[in-house]
Write a structure and sequence with these properties.
24 strands, two-stranded antiparallel ribbon, 430 residues
């Protein structure tokens, strides 16, 4: 198998994306743009394109395997994606062709850079065709300069906080939509100072991306955000402390006047991991101060404690991942309301969600299967997804996946009740 079969080094795309999906349901404000709710697919396979550059602390200067590629810094991917809705006479909901150009390489003065451009062509039966026929976007563009003790990164990229993907601390980058839970790149600057067993990272975002609410005025988008992270490594495991002033990734609708705003809040967090007899245990906890919430026709400030724990077990090629995510309102009143696209529903003080994913390979790792089940403790929502990936050759790959969602009719996720999709994807890699 050549190096180009990069999937063998990645986590299960369906499982990770679904964890994003579930977490953002229960930690971010429920009200999202209508177009975001119906960006049709749960895009499990495409998330793996983002994860390889997810962390701002990754060592980009690690030695790479040599190959026979004439242009080792150039990557081209051509994809065709098709999805149907079994619940609606198998109607086509997604049909689009995407071309991705990826350029990476070393720069003078110990520098490194990446540029990724994505071009989409929506076909007439794609759900997005009504608003856009084609789209070209810079997905990632950054430069990084490093020395023995310092590293600075500037451009459009993602930063992953916390031990749990999509967990309580993984809140820097917004997701594309509730049904497309892929972290979106933002224009950032970050710097890291390294010591023997620790490092300190800082980041600054002048203009954070905010998901707007359909037909609702976003009255303020001027807030910046910044934060720091201190990492410590020892023989037991890794641990980190976080301190930040952040802007919510989605706007909150003020029921009183109908406007929306992303109000800044403060975060204090801690994460750790520990390996015990073949298991990797991950912990995240975050105290979030000055979050805004609707109460009796006015917005009030509340504090919330979010925590998550994950148990990761990998034996040979099979990986089991069990995750619990929770959020608890320290300040709570019975007249708290959560606005949705269709109604205002009462707010629960406690929200707890579970997720179990399994993935494995067979036939010399040419095939990879995965399955994930997610649910909330109160039964507000249940999700089941499964898929299989096939590395046809060094250049060709394909995948098929299916997803079903059941949600309570009188709760905030009712609009997703009965969501069903079956998707097929064919890719050519250079």
């Amino acid at each position: 198998m050549s190096q180009l079969k990069y999937k063998k080094c990645e986590v299960c795309a369906s499982g990770v994306a679904s964890l994003f999906f579930l977490y953002y349901f229960f930690s971010a404000p429920t009200v999202m743009a209508e177009e975001s709710l119906f960006k049709d697919e749960l895009s499990f396979d495409s998330v793996e394109q983002e994860l390889d550059s997810y962390s701002d602390s990754d060592d980009v200067f690690e030695a790479e395997e040599t190959n026979n590629n004439k242009y080792p810094g150039l990557g081209v991917k051509l994809s065709h994606k098709l999805s149907v809705n079994p619940a609606d006479n198998w109607e086509t909901t997604k049909q689009r062709t995407e071309l991705t150009l990826d350029i990476k390489g070393l720069l003078p003065r110990s520098g490194y850079g990446e540029l990724q451009i994505n071009a989409k062509r929506y076909w007439p039966n794609d759900s997005s065709y009504a608003t856009e026929i084609s789209d070209i976007e810079v997905e990632r563009a950054f430069t990084q300069f490093s020395s023995e003790k310092w590293s600075t990164k500037l451009g459009k990229y993602t930063i992953g906080w916390g031990e749990i993907e999509g967990g309580p601390l993984d809140v820097i980058n917004p997701i594309a939509s509730l049904t497309d839970p892929i972290p979106e790149s933002q224009w950032l600057i970050s710097t890291t100072r390294y010591w023997n067993n620790s490092n300190l990272s800082l980041f600054y975002n002048q203009s954070p991306n905010i998901t707007k609410i359909a037909n609702v005025n976003l009255n303020d988008k001027s807030n910046s955000e910044f934060g720091l992270r201190f990492d410590l490594k020892d023989d037991v495991g890794d641990s980190s402390i976080y301190l930040a002033r952040l802007v919510p990734n989605s706007a909150l609708k003020d029921i009183a006047n109908g406007d929306s705003k992303a109000h800044p809040y403060q975060l204090l967090g801690y994460s750790a991991n520990q390996a015990i007899e073949g298991y990797l245990i991950k912990y995240d906890i975050a105290y979030k101060n000055n979050l805004k919430h609707n109460r009796s026709g006015s917005l009030v400030s509340v504090d919330r404690i979010d925590w998550g724990i994950a148990l990761d077990r990998q034996k040979e090629d099979r990986q089991w991942l069990f995750t619990i995510n929770s959020k608890h309102l320290v300040d709570y009143y019975s007249d708290f309301l959560t606005p949705t696209l269709t109604q205002n529903v009462s707010t629960r003080r406690h929200n707890l969600s579970y997720s179990l994913s399994v993935n494995d390979t067979f036939d010399n790792s040419d095939y990879k299967w995965n399955i994930l089940a997610s649910s909330t403790s109160n039964g507000d929502m249940k999700l089941l997804s499964t898929g299989i990936d096939w590395d046809i050759s060094d250049q060709w790959s394909s995948s098929i996946n299916g997803t079903k969602i059941i949600a309570s009719s009188d709760r905030e996720f009712s609009i997703l009740d009965g969501y069903e999709r079956v998707g097929i994807e064919l890719n050519y890699h250079y």
